[in-house]
Design a protein that fits this description.
The complex is a heterodimer of chains A (666) and B (276). Chain A has 25 helices and 25 strands. Chain A is of the alpha/beta class and 666 residues long. Chain B has a domain of 193 residues: MetI-like (MetI-like fold), CATH 1.10.3720. Chain B is 78% helix and 0% strand. The chains are: A alpha/beta (666), B mainly alpha (276).
Amino acid sequence: MTVLVAVEQVEKRFPLGGGNFYLALQDINLEIRQGEFVSFIGHSGCGKSTLLNLIAGLDRPTQGQVWVGGQPVQRPGPDRMVVFQNYSLLPWLTVWENVSLAVEEVLGHLSPAERRQVVQWHLDLVGLTAAKHKYPAQLSGGMKQRVAIARALAIRPEVLLLDEPFGALDALTRGHLQEQLLRICEEHQVTTVMVTHDVDEAVFLSDRIVMLTNGPGAQIGQILTVDIPRPRRRMEVVKHPSYYSLRSEVIYFLNQQKRIKNMRARSAKAIARHGLEKVNLEIGFVPLTACAPLAVAKEKGLFAKHGLDEVHLVRETSWRGIVDGLVGGYLDAAQTPAGLPVWLTLGGHQERPLPVVTSLTLTRNGNAITLARRFYDQGIHDAQSLRAYLHRQATPHILGMVHPASMHNLLLRYWLAAHGIDPDRDVQLRTIPPAQMVADLKAGTIDGYCVGEPWNLRAALEGIGFTVATDQELWLDHPGKVLGVREDWAMRYPNTHIALVKALLEACHYCAQPQHHEEIRHLLARREYLGTDVRYIQLGEPGKLTCDLHQPEYAHHRFYGEGLNRPSRTEHLWIMTQLARWGEVPFPRNWLEILERVCRVDTFTIAAREVGLLGTTQTSRSPIRLFDGSEFTSNQDPIDYLNHLAIKRDFSVAEIVLERPQVALS
Amino acid sequence: MVTAPSPRFRPIPWQEWRQRYAPQVIPPVVGIVGFLLVWQVLSVTGITRLPAPSALLTDENTRNLLLNPFFDRGGLDKGLFWQTMASLTRVVKGYLGAAVVGISLGILVGVNPIVNQALDPLFQFLRMIAPLAWVPITLIALPNVQTAAIFVIFITAVWPILINTAVGVQQIPQDYKNVAMVLQISPRKYFFKILLPAALPYIFTGLRIAIGLAWLAIIAAEIVMSGVVGIGFFIWDAYQQNYVSEVILAVIYIGAVGLILDRLVAWAQRLIVPQQ
């Protein structure tokens, strides 16, 4: 499909007087194809209407250019008809005259009879023939907006621009008009751009949703493709498996924008106390069994014991929330997947390297691969039979994982690749928040997933999936979650950092003691943590059975032990090779430097010594042993290792230049 | 189907009439009668030299004028109807001129910000000059008294029309302008379909203010420009000859005509301005 509207490098400033200006939009690039329905969504004042006006030509960009149909937009024109929020009907003209005025002006080449036909046809289209001799004042809001839509469509614009068209209408009318608009747009293949603040409206109507960040200097934060097939009917759309994930994606984005705004307004002030630089901490976590150390540290008063008496645990539903929190600076620390510190440091997030350090491994194991029950029923109980099955199928199967940098992604890919299944070609991997996995598996939108507990056990207990591989079949005692903080944060609050590691290390120790398991299970089942049935949460030694629906097994967590909590350079190096293997980030030529900076062994050692848990400080010199018998050691050449892997993407090796860590003067 | 009962003519009983109209009619009647009574008392007791209202009928000259407004004995000796008509003619001429010039200039000023900036100080300056102050200038500048009187009307009435029109044009909602821009409506059509209808309420506000001012001004102008037929001069003449009751009669005429003029413009407004 051809590109109809192109927005190139657009920036818009509004003069404020006195030489000042307000930067409304910056760095906007967007292409809209012929026949596409695109929505702009964002908080009020983010400049979405300004962007629409730029396309309409009612406003001119300060920099950059808007193209419509290959022509630069210089001024408004009937090829880009706008439907305004407040209808903009001329009150002294009747419905007919309002539409007719536009038709006469724009379609002047038609005969009067043909023009009358056009007007009549479009009034029929919006069902307003009966009201054609009424004045706008005699119409309801919904009817007025229908007249405005009829007027806009009657002049056959190339692009229909809608500026919050249904914003002022009541819910019932709005829903009705949305359906009408949808029908018209689908039937007549109208290219449409709509500004809205209604998430459901955007998902229901759009092919793509353009989400704008908050101003000043609003940018396109994200573009979401709505893969719900057309023609759409509201009830079908609502039931479509993607609907809720799309909806929650948009809401997530908007909430995130709000939080950033609040964060900016609040300017979280560090409260120094007890010889610590900052005792008010926001610590992010994702509801998983693996969050036990954080929950315990909070509930058992371990944070307070080490002087951190204003710790607030922030529950994020996805790892993306954690990433945004760390990047945006509104989380002080977070429980992160083991690969996240390396991934962020190497520029995995928006290709901007952000040094993040880890000084504690919170959990090991606790992850497993689950496949849908129908695989089990077809006798697919292991990777070999899965491979044979996949090679017979034409349509690619979809597997879920939680984040590109999580061990789930890396282990799942490794597991697949080790069995000759290319994780990008033979299957599709999709990023889904952990808590949503079971629902998606149930709905049949994914065929399996790799995720932390309790979501594997839950699928097994509910009989919708089965665990095909756990820790023991992958990499026994692999790192699961680690504590991640930004490097600049660690430099600014070194004593707080140590106190945090102390509190969490003690919590890990607590979690590892079997007599506490019952208590922790019930603690985690609570609403503010996992909010799930306690029987899905299991700790301790699992059974040895695999692939048995009647005897579900669970991945077991290890929270504490000799050599288990100390950040391991070897493990992070392995993670680096795997991230490079699948093209997530380039492999750093300066990997030694990166490892030194990511793994803060010094902080861990100080903390462990101070809480008297010295046993954990020993370095494990044994190599990493994976299920396929391969070994990985720290004195191995990682690039050589990468080159010897059979299935991989074209990885690149690059020097990752990190800024020198700087201590803020405060 | 229920048929509506056919309206039958039925004389409204006195009782009902009173209930319906009494609240509207009685207070103003009481007010006017009371006012006249006080006046009458004040005059009869000699507290004021002003003749009593009853003098309109008791004074012979005045009674003649009141009962026979249509006589015309040539020169300045005409009935009150003719006097009023002469004044009205002047007002109409000056007022129409003011309307044409005021609306056109107002639109020009409203549409074009640069013209607005250029002319606004001038307008504000000229607007502040009282109608009577124009009289000597016009008498010098213009060939005869008639034209001078019309010009005074014009110059008095033009400012409210002009300023209101300009505001009306400036206040056209951006939405309508956007619609016009997007549709690329021709200037002629923009003028008649959007600008004029949108500005009309403001224009009529200006016209209503102006008609009142014009009527005020003509009386003042005629008093000063002696020797013309007109109700203003009539008052002055009557005063000079000490026919005070005639003055009062003329004043009643002036008030009544002013009221009618205002109602007339209001009626035209209702007729022309689109109902929204």
